[in-house]
Design goal:
By secondary structure, this protein is an all-alpha fold. About 60% of the residues lie in helices and about 0% in strands. α3 packs across α4, α3 crosses α6 and α4 runs antiparallel to α10. It is globular. The mean pLDDT is about 90.
Length: about 280
């Protein structure tokens, strides 16, 4: 508990520093209600993960029996784990944007229309349910779950500082690292920025797989159709509700009596032609 309080105090301290710097530069970075929601969502995520963290550990320990080797955790071992974990994060992050059920979880983090250090605290409340799945390859390679957790936590500290508008582009570092500028692109809803820069620490994966983009125009933050400024409940559940209605409509259409309105445009045109022929023949 003391460790958790220390970590949260660490993050909130730098949020306060950014607020002061923004005021000093006369930049409107923060929206107070939005920041409060970010903090609430962060604590909700912590609460959920505290309840289910046991299953993640047991889950990975099961797969540890199938490890192909045991990686020695010397300097080289830690570097190898850092790179492997970063790639694991990239894969998970891509899935969160491409698979709708995972996007329903992850969209919470993207929903804010403002961007500052507190945005990093707008965490995906239910991500802890599937995150361990993406650590399975690391365990099978031969890494210990506890070591994976340490590297992941350290990387998360790095990503916290990516959520800022106070640091401009760093072209040299962008060649191999995710920078605040590159992460701003990731949070943009501009058409050219959607589904770009999925990396956590390294930008090499985005370059390799064609998901890399630089910040060359103003970023518009938020998610279309998502209530970024709505209640905490709506931020968490809007996409889940949308999925429910879409599935409901699909099922309804699948099992309902076929109607002209449900047919394709071509079928409707053929129907109209048949009607004309029928009427003219009378």
């Amino acid at each position: 508990m003391l460790t958790l309080i220390f970590i949260e105090s660490f993050f909130l301290f730098f949020v306060g520093v950014e607020i002061l710097l923004a005021r000093r530069k006369n930049i409107a970075l923060y929206d107070f209600p939005d920041t409060i929601k970010n903090i609430i969502l962060n604590w909700l995520a912590i609460g959920v993960e505290s309840l289910i963290k046991g299953w993640g550990i047991v889950f990975l320990l099961i797969f540890q029996r199938y490890a192909i080797c045991h990686v020695q955790m010397n300097l080289l071992g830690w570097c190898f784990l850092a790179v492997a974990q970063d790639f694991s994060y990239y894969c998970r992050h891509v899935c969160e944007h491409k698979l709708r059920i995972m996007w329903a979880v992850h969209s919470v983090h993207h929903s804010s229309t403002v961007f500052n250090l507190s945005t990093s605290m707008r965490r995906s409340v239910f991500q802890g349910f599937y995150r361990p799945i993406f650590f399975i390859p690391l365990v099978i390679i031969g890494f210990q779950p506890i070591d994976i957790g340490i590297v992941y936590a350290a990387s998360q500290v790095y990503t916290f500082f990516l959520h800022t508008k106070l640091i401009s582009r760093l072209p040299f570092f962008e060649k191999f690292l995710i920078t605040p500028s590159l992460h701003r692109v990731h949070h943009g809803r501009n058409k050219k920025y959607i589904d770009k820069n999925f990396g956590q620490v390294l930008s090499v994966w985005d370059r390799l797989f064609g998901t890399f983009a630089v910040e060359d125009k103003k970023v518009i933050f938020g998610v279309y159709g998502q209530p970024g400024n709505g209640s905490v409940y709506s931020i968490i559940f809007t996409e889940w509700i949308n999925i429910y209605h879409d599935v409901k409509n699909k099922i309804k259409k699948t099992f309902s009596i076929p109607r002209v309105s449900d047919r394709s445009i071509k079928e409707n045109e053929e129907f109209k032609l048949d009607e004309m022929i029928s009427n003219n023949s009378k």
